[in-house]
Specification:
This protein is mostly helical. The chain has 13 helices and four strands. The strands form two sheets. Strands 1-2 form a two-stranded antiparallel sheet. Strands 3-4 form a two-stranded antiparallel sheet. Bound molecules: protoporphyrin IX containing FE.
Length: 315
Amino acid sequence: MVGGNFLSLFLLVEIIVSGYRFGANGLSMNYYLMSCPVADPIVKNTVNRALQADPTLAAGLVRMHFHDCFIEGCDGSVLIDSTKDNTAEKDSPANLSLQGYEIIDAAKEQLEKMCPGVVSCSDILAMAARDAVFWAGGPIYDIPKGRKDGRRSKIEDTINLPPPTFNASQLITMFGQHGFSAQEMVALSGAHTLGVAACSSFKSRLSKVDPTLDADFAKTLSKTCSSGDNAQQPFDATRNSFDNLYFKALQRKAGLLTSDQALYADSRTAGIVNGFAFNEAMFFFTFQGAMVKMGTLDVKEGSKGEVRTNCHKIN
Ligand code: HEM
């Protein structure tokens, strides 16, 4: 009995001292509680101000966090500029349309004034993506912090980002390699409730008869592409709102990318799409869990990384 009480007390103290440590890595929900308590509010205010001025940047922040985490883990590698000796991830064709870098820079600049050398660029990006989701009407959720910034950013690594031509099997395999279930993969794809794709990302669908593409929607896409490869098409009818219209579009065969519509064409994922289209709360719940998980991919701790003073270059 006494032993049991002692164990409970020990666990309680352990939880308080560790600040809800997250899994095996050294992340925790209140990582900056003592070292930089303004970290969360500064990022949130910076994101809110920027999105008020340009709501389309919410999509950019969410996508940038994904592209960061899938390459070399969530370590801010996507933020590093190329140098004369190194072509960085951000100059890969897959990353050329990323947007929102200036929001990360603005938050970093303020944080370096308040708590120099404390808050990593990878944490700022993870917090900014979270705040962008909420700003656009999506779920509110807390994320563990304590990621260190990486020192490697190479264009060739971006081969590991999924191309828009992937089918469901390829998506299930690639996301599975990162530890995601098919349901989590479909939920993460639901980030395409925000933003746009360029014609170059979907025009291959228009050159042949595609039974998974609605005829009227195909006409809309052809019209968009008549303005050139850079012409943009929203993923759903509400490009700045985080909702479940993306999944409803898939049900109408009005998904934009091959990889979007593939989720409805495959029996392993069609039911998940239907579930999220029917029940937005279920989409939000699964999405937030999957985002927290994505944000902990291959996180660098301690001396495996650093806190960059300028997000564009290693220290
Ligand atoms: C499932 C595999 C995925 C593929 C094949 C894919 C591919 C793409 C492509 C090709 C674009 C358009 C790029 C352009 O034409 O400029 C895009 C945009 C976007 N992606 Fe994904 N993506 C995937 C998953 C994700 C995930 C997991 C997230 C975030 C959690 C995400 C977030 C976004 C957002 C928000 C945009 C719009 C960006 C903007 O408007 O600035 N994507 N994606």
